[in-house]
Amino acid sequence: MSVIAPKFRFSEFLKSLTDNIFWIIVILTLIGLPIIMIALFFIPMPVYEGELINPFLAFTWMFHPELALPLVKALLVTDMFRIIVFPGFGFAALLAASVIFIERKMLAKLQLRVGPFYCGKVEGILQLMGDGLKLMTKEIIIPAKADKPIFILSPLLFLGAAAAFVALIPVAPGWVVADIDLGLIAVFAVIGFFPIITVLAAWSANSKYPFIGGIRALFQMVSFEIPLILSLLGVVILTGTLNLSEIVQSQASFPWILFLPIGAIVFFIAMLAELERIPFDLPEAESEIVAGWLTEFSGMMYGLVQLGSYVKLYAFAALFVVVFLGGWTGPMIFPPLEEELILEGKTIGPITIQTPGLPIFSMEFFSGVIWFILKTAVVIFFILLPRGVFPRVRIDLLLDLGWFKLIGLTFVNIFIALALLYAGVFGPGGML
Amino acid sequence: MVDAAFLALSVITIGSAIAALELRSLIYGSIALMGTLGGVAGFFLLLDSPFVALFQIAVYVGSIAVLILFTVMLVKRELIFKKIEDPKRKWAGIGLMLIFMVAIGAIILDSGLKSVTTDEPPVDFREIGDDFLTYYWPALILMALILAGSVTGALVLARREDEISG
């Protein structure tokens, strides 16, 4: 018989268990509860049935757990929740993390390989968690002659810029972190930060390959920013607004990709170049310059850059969905909640559960989010697809494409938009 | 009362401008220059013109600072950069700046302008567009010609010369 722990005593096991429970209770009561009580004074609490829900009613909540619903509802509309959890960073990071796994698995299937397989019982589903743990526990090595402040700060700045980009994307009606009038211009301003951070990170490592990669990234990003911006102008001309939420609302009956396909194609190609994806992954060309501007990053610094680049991928895909595919618009999926459930609660046998403040989200919200995620997933799939198929382009071909062909096509797109406007199809008094 | 945001922006802008001049490392100097340009964008935001502020960030921080950074990185510092340590010049420069500042301050104090308060909303970018199409149309046409010329120039420069031979 194999023994897991040779000196195992059940009584000692019980003792260790009770010891742990004892210390947890002691620490919670002495430190945890005071901290919670102090913190609760600074959080605005909601009013329910004419009474302010305050921390002193904690025992009441224990016996009526459904009272927590108004509290949850109040939490959901705070700015902090928006920034950290739902339309903001947490949502994007979750999607980005799943994209990393799906990319590996999908590429493997495309190339008739197995891909991640052993980590987790089913199809290597825990591979990502394993990778994350490995990155977190790895040593962070900083090159001896590196410029330390910039080198340490640049992964954080990269992730921060990606998060700022995510903050501008509307996910559902009213669900956007920063709903500003000049959303599209703000997007361009945020995109402008990526080449700076990339080239600073590359320079600060004080090494050959990162510097070559950084210079390539700079060329590529700066030259593809121009077709990227110009390709969106067609939509701006037709809608007459720069607010991303209003751009989505203008596509209630049809997405703009039907009328401006050239703009959509140019935006997609420029997006691939901005994201450094194959066939434009020259800054990270692993067969030429080790890993490009990421070469000297190790441990969690590499992890942060990786997470940042995938959050950026999600943000670009979401921008494509918002501008060309109609964002959250789509047919309703769920029926609205029953009136009875909201007003009287649900009766199960002898027990009646009342649910005050139950419609936490409207059903439009759910269906909008599902449509948005579905469309984003399709766009991300098309972003990932070339990696399994195409080789890398040469840098002169890349610049030729960016400066010569794509800019020409964007002007064609703008003229199409102007023609639609002046022919009276769109705009004030237009047919559609 | 002095606005806290205004004060912070002033400190950032002027501090990073001094840093941009004084720092020995050219890279850090250009990063400080980015701080200055970003601070100016903040001033535009305080002045209720977010359109100009965002374009300040997109163009000056996003493009021109990158150009400067790129140039600095490609240049070997020792070859072109000879340090001239002349305390007289430095003090003369500081004195000149002080005289200039005092003169400007005197003008502002003399103008009787204490504070400006308006309830008007931020300038709508559509109004800027309307103004450009009606009153300032010659400026718009001039800008359009210059931009078209520069785009055409970029296209001509980007054309590959070896297409026929290769």
Q: How would you summarize the topology of this molecule?
A:
The complex is a heterodimer of chains A (432) and B (166).
Chain A: H1 10-41, E1 47-48, E2 51-52, H2 58-63, H3 68-76, H4 79-84, H5 89-110, H6 127-137, H7 148-167, H8 183-191, H9 193-204, H10 208-239, H11 244-249, H12 261-274, H13 299-324, H14 339-343, E3 346-348, E4 351-353, H15 363-389, H16 395-422
Antiparallel strand pairs in A: 1-2, 3-4
Helix pairs in contact in A: 5-13, 5-15, 6-13, 7-9, 7-13, 9-10, 10-12, 10-16, 12-13, 12-16, 13-15
Chain B: H1 4-22, H2 26-46, H3 50-74, H4 77-80, H5 87-110, H6 125-134, H7 137-158
Helix pairs in contact in B: 1-2, 2-3
Structure description:
The complex is a heterodimer of chains A (432) and B (166). Chain A is an all-alpha fold. Chain A has one domain (83-422). Helix content of chain A is 61%, strand content 2%. Chain A contains 16 helices and four strands. Chain A has a two-stranded antiparallel ribbon with strand order 1-2. In chain A, 36% of the residues are buried. The mean pLDDT of chain A is 83. Chain B is mainly α and 166 residues long. Chain B folds into two domains: 1-82, Up-down Bundle (Four Helix Bundle (Hemerythrin (Met), subunit A)), CATH 1.20.120; 124-166. Chain B has seven helices and no strands. In chain B, α1 runs antiparallel to α2 (26-46). Chain B is flat, with a radius of gyration of 22 Å. Classes of the chains: A mainly alpha (432), B mainly alpha (166). The interface between A and B is medium-sized, with 31 and 28 residues.
